[in-house]
Amino acid sequence: MSSEPKFKKVVEAADGLSLGISIVVAILLGVGIGYLMRKWFGYEWLFWLGVFWGIGGAILNIYKVYKKQKKELDELANDPKYARRKYDSSDEDDF
Questions:
Q1: DSSP tag of 3
Q2: pLDDT single digits (tens) 44-89
Q3: pLDDT on residue 40
Q4: What one-character DSSP code corresponds to residue 1?
Q5: Which among 9, 26, 14, 10 has a CA at the least distance from the CA of 62?
Q6: b/e map of 7-23 (b: 16 or more CB within 10 Å)?
Q7: DSSP annotation string for 14-75
Q8: Tally of CA atoms within 13 A in the half-sphere of 32 that contains its CB
């Protein structure tokens, strides 16, 4: 039996799609919170505060995914299976 979970590739693909969805959701939540705060308190600038919070949340999501991907690629780079092999110049044929 294989040690990998049955739906590992599906979960990895959904994880990649979730970045785009999380960006949209973060911005929409920020706009919604800003709109509600403007309605409740009557200050126009609270709407823009919500928009900036949403954009900030989207940027934070991108940063988290970047750090996760960098960590995975660094682990892959340290894998001996993918290490660069160094060849001696004495083994090469002179043309």
A1: S
A2: 999 999 999 999 999 999 999 899 888 888 888 777 776 666 655 5
A3: 96
A4: -
A5: 26
A6: eeeeeeeeeeeeeeebb
A7: HHHHHHHHHHHHHHHHHHHHHHHHHHHH--THHHHHHHHHHHHHHHHHHHHHHHHHHHHHHH
A8: 6
